[in-house]
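Entry 14. Ran structure prediction on the chain below.
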Amino acid sequence: MRSWRRRCRVWLLALHQWLGLSLGLLFCLLGLTGSLLVFYVEGDRLLNPELVVVPPSCQSPAGTPCQPQSLDRIYALLEAAHPGRNGGWRLELPMGPGQPLTARYYQPEEKAGLGFAPLLVTVDPYRLQITSQRFWGDFAATWLYDLHFTLLLDRSGRTLLGAASLLLLLLLGLGVYLWWPSPRRLGAALRPGAGRSSQRRIYDWHVLGGIYGLPLLLLLTLSGAMLEQPAWFKPVLALFSPVDALPVPAAESGSILIAPQQALEIARQHLPRGEVRWLETPPAGGGNYRLRIYQPGDPSRRFPHTLMWIDAASGEVLALRRPEQGSVADSLFNWLHPLHNGEAFGLPGRLLTALAGLLPLLLFYTGLRRWRQKVAARAARP
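Output, structure tokens:
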């Protein structure tokens, strides 16, 4: 029995070693790009100063700040600049006075055939000026996003990264199993040894970096796999909890009588404590407005999970999908993105996530050094 365990450990150690050597660079790439993407919106504005909005000073006796232009005027500006785009726009409202309104037009003809490459137009909502017009993937921030999410390979890259993420989970699990000491040695195994050889110090950095960083590494790797390929995980979760439990109303063609600003006001009347973050206009043939609304307790302010559908012809609220009405599986998927980028825990969570992205580089470097030490030791034997 002891001999079998020894052979099993040798095989598992070899598997851990070769998984680390073969996937290590990919793990480093995902970690480093993930660290940068935690602040990719802020980085984009830093690289492109024209995106920064400076609210004008208003001459008001009461000192009331200037208000942005109405969504109707902003939407008319977009239609005038792009008269041939009739599929509807998705408007991201500014989160602060220094930010532009960003409009996305999905499935532009210029990027036909790509899975995700919308046109992004930023508008100064005070001066009613278009400040940039760019396609997703054609500028640094979104190119980096695509590198992290698809390896610049579009749909096939998502499949590849989904499979690689599962192998990385196996790599982490093997590392914990191979390290796990007996109960009486656990305390000593969790402390780096002083005055040890360089070989032992490399080992300590590799092991303790993996053990202490394990909760974050597991969280980021598993959430990344589920974001890459949710269809792989939904059938498993559906065994325990309904997935996509709440209905979504179908869009109907007809006249568009409700303007965007009116749809925004209807949403605010229904949810006075909510903050409308996104407003999706119907296509030229008619349909529904769809709004994403942030409410206290939502893990993501930028991509909240309260959804409202408003009939563009009548102004009737067709459906209101609240996250607390969903199933356990739905709640899990709502938390994936804000957990993956740290947004769920505010600025401290984002900083911690950015630091966690450096761990794969530490593990790969120390693992590679440890492997080379073993190769040299074997070569030196008689």
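Strands lie at 90-92, 101-105, 119-124, 129-135, 275-280, 288-294, 306-311, 317-321. Will compare against last week's run tomorrow.
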